[in-house]
Target: TLCD2 protein
Amino acid sequence: SPRRFCLHPELSEDLVGTHPPGAHSLVAVSVGYFLEDFVDMLCNQKFHQSWELLFHHSVVIVCFGIAVVLHQYVGFALVALLVEINSIFLHLRQILLMANLVHTTCYRLNSIINLGTYVVFRIATLAWMTRWLFLNRENVPAATYAVGTVGMAIMTPMNIILFYRLLRSDFFK
Model:
């Protein structure tokens, strides 16, 4: 979280070997959440409706799992968790849709906040992570760099497509 960077400025220098107390546990719990959500989707949703999220969760589980097992890149995983701030508004949007509250001020306000947090916490964060990975490629082992690069190459287009869908659905009907 941003607070972690204020309290632990060394994270901005070393996202590989440095992490504050509790960060490893946070990333490990996040792996558990993504695993549980993955299994829940497999059991309770049709594959054609959830394949993108299943794919997303697979990438996150692999990347975060590496950080947990190796006790490295935990700081990088913390940065990636900033993306989940936007998930609050994505999930609220889904709840409002299910409650048939699309034509309410609450839905409109959430749509605006959702897009704003999407740009800041998804698109900008992923761009920053991609930049960090590229700038630090000499210091990252080849296999880890490959996993990170593939992860970013998968997540970035997925998030841009989802942003376009949200924009089209909520603002350009």
Remarks:
- The chain has seven helices and no strands.
- The two ends are 34 Å apart (CA to CA).
- Helices lie at 2-7, 23-44, 47-70, 74-81, 84-98, 105-135, 142-171.
- The mean pLDDT is 89.
